[in-house]
Amino acid sequence: MANREQYWSVCLYPYFLSSLSSCTLVSYTDEELEQELALLAQKAIARFKFPKVPLTYDFYRPVPEVSMNPAFGDRFKIEVKHDESYVDGWYFTEEGVTMKEILVIIAWMKYYWVEYQASKERNYENLYADKDVKAFSSGNLLQSIDKMFMDLMFAARKTEEDYSRVNKNGRPAVGDVNA
Predict the structure, then answer these.
(1) Is 143 part of a structural domain of the chain?
(2) Is position 155 within any domain?
(3) Which of 88, 109, 138, 179 is an S-S bond match for 40, by CB 3.0 to 4.6 Å?
(4) Number of structural domains, the chain?
(5) What is the mean pLDDT of the chain?
């Protein structure tokens, strides 16, 4: 079980959500949003090359304490108790994940989010089958999504490269071997 600061819903998701604007994410329910963000984070962590701290993670769901107290003769009253300070969610199992690692993870999460947006089938559909009707062309949309995709890939690589250039103490890491 982790402390509250290690939960992705505290240390990762708010920074990711504040870094982009998306009509799709707004339309999700809380459960769908949590699931989508967890998948993006897992992909981003898998893509992260050479982190300086372990990025292992796990899912925690508090197990309720169930006690049966005799209430009325043969019937039992079930009381469910659990620690309210912990919530369901993904968390980093190791302490020491800093904002430096979070920024790299967020950069890759944005990359994978745009990859998902580009792969939506509705972007490729024709609105009208009639050749005489002038309609919105998805070509410009796809071109701008592709440009954003490439820009975010470059930005994520740059963020990760900048991260790898300094050691844990913030000093240049050029020449550090296994430091």
Answers:
(1) yes
(2) yes
(3) 109
(4) 1
(5) 79
Give me the domain span that covers residue 27. 4-164
Return d(Cα 83, Cα 155) in angstroms, integer: 41
8 Å CB contact between 82 and 63:
yes
What integer pLDDT is reported at residue 154 of this predicted model? 95
What residue type is assigned to position 160 of the chain? E
> Is 45 within 8 Å of 69 (Cβ atoms)?
no
Helix (H) and strand (E) counts for the chain? Answer: 6, 4
pLDDT digits (tens, 9 = 90+) for 99-150: 999 999 999 999 999 888 877 766 556 655 566 666 666 777 778 888 988 9
pTM of the model: 0.76
Alpha helices in the chain (DSSP H): 8-11, 13-18, 23-27, 30-47, 99-118, 138-164
**Residue 46 domain-assigned (yes or no):** yes
Task: Name the residue among 85, 86, 67 with its Cα closest to residue 77.
Answer: 67
Please state the rounded mean pLDDT for residues 74-92. Answer: 65
